Amino acid sequence: MELIETARALVASGPICDHCLGRPFADRSFGLTNAERGRAVRTTIAMADDVDYETTSPTDCWVCEGICGRFDELADDAIDALGETELYSYQVGSRVPPLVEENDRLLRTEASLEADAGEPLRSELNREVGRRIGARLGVDVDFRRPDVQFTVDLEDGTIDVQRNSISVYGRYRKLERGIPQTEWDTYDESVEELVAPPLLSAFRGTEAVFHGAGREDVDALMLEAGRPFVMEIKQPRRRSADLEALEAEINDRTAGKAAVGGLTFVSYEMIERVKQLDATKTYRATVEFDDAVDVDAFSAALEALDGATIAQRTPHRVDHRRADLVRERRVLSIEGTLEDDVSAIVEIHGEGGLYIKELISGDEGRTEPNLAGIVGVGATVVALDVIDVEGAEEPFLTDDYLLDRDGAPATGRAQG
Ligand SMILES: [Zn+2]
Question: Cα–Cα distance between 256 and 240 in angstroms, integer?
Fold first, then answer.
């Protein structure tokens, strides 16, 4: 059908506003709003057929039933619902009453168009309300992971505001034994509980979730370079903060029990990376032997283990509900010194998942080869600390995961 005939059929369908008249032609001309398209179509018919040019306001439109006249009002309502919140980016989604969506399809079939010709009402609503919010707050639309997601629900007349979480990367050191990484009933405090409160209050979030790149035993220290983590702050009302000052505040608060460093804003994807990236770890083990050990035998044992692939059956000490299986992990490097003839300090750099206590003791033959076995004297780890945690192939934090942001965030404010 010719455009003009289609246009006549659309206008003949009943009182129709310019938006609804223009929307079926949305893929015909670019750079115009649907309302501008609708006006152009109406003018064309008026001239061609020499009839009165008569427009219909959205309030009287049989298709949208007034929705297309409410874009300004809905944008105002959305900004009200946002309250005082910093944001760099937003996105608008909506729920339109099914009967109105049905009108939108009916309009097209009456003009012999495909039921989904042009643009659906819902996407015009999202774009037009979004554009107004963006202009008023001076922020950009982001379809991937916006800071704020508005959902305009025209069915129940509500506007939902979702403030997407903010992620701060860093490394922590644990300088006192007996502190778990995250909250645990039987312990008074955890690394998470020491680190979270200043971040939670700076970003005015509702909850802080700690994501660590693995975890050390409760009784192990985490030293030197520290362990990577991401602190996720949920529903934040602030998105900018002086991370250096926060770092100092956290380290003041932890009173020497733990420390954080290198706090940096990162993208949400960094959470998965920190949790998934197969990290190698460097441990420092204090080892006690059951009997005197000869220096040469000790050195020869370390040499034998350096670079060795270790077969480990699930250790005795591990939860018995865990499957009993044999895993292979490499000792990437190992070195050590005898303190006296029954004790030694051993540093092991191993693949993720290598059981260190068992590498030393042999775990009654469940780990092979092992230090005790090679030396021929029973050996036990009496203290174990983690010195470093690093990505097996590449560093944890690469440029891809830095949050790419210009300027300061805008602030939405409740009106009135
Ligand atoms: Zn309409």
Answer: 27
